[in-house]
Specification:
- The chain contains 1 helix and 12 strands, in the order αββββββββββββ.
- By secondary structure, it is mostly beta strands.
- It has one domain: Galactose-binding domain-like (Jelly Rolls).
- The strands form 2 sheets. Strands 1, 3, 4, 6, 9 and 11 form a 6-stranded antiparallel sheet that branches.
- It is globular, with a radius of gyration of 19 Å.
- It starts with a helix and ends in a 46-residue tail after the last strand.
Length: 185
Amino acid sequence: MWRVSSLLLICATGSSVSQLDASAATWSGRTIGSPGNVSFSWEGVQATFTVSGATQVKLLASSRDPGPACVFHTLIDGNLWLNWTLKATSLSNITIAAGLSPGAHTVVVWYATDPVVPTWDKLPAWSHSFHSFFTDGAFGAPVPKPERRLQIIGDSITVSVDANHPCAPKTPPRKNKPEPEPYTP
């Protein structure tokens, strides 16, 4: 299957293609990885890698989310390049960056939709998998992970649940919500 996708990209671009196994990208967030596949369902998961001499980058991905399309962001050199969606499918070949200028670029693919059922350490039924990245340029050395990490302890409110949430039903408004009491010193 991977060779077919590579061949499709070669035919579409008329140039040679480089492939990066998804598990070779630098990942941030909760993922389950194995050679040839990285699966996730939590908002904020990111894959980072570098390309040089590329005009476009494609992704071979699949999703088991039955809801509306889930939102992803592509950032090139720290700037938002493209918002794109992934719908439930067995396999999709998605252009995540096109029209890149000559030179080296850092690419970040960021999952921006909160999951419906965030059970961990088992993926919920609605998860996504990245299989491979492709480019008409070359992939660079792995991006090092940051030396410092910040751990935020809290629930989904802490990571801005509903900030960008087209895949899950909205929480109905609470009835009989109490009004805040006035402050009296």
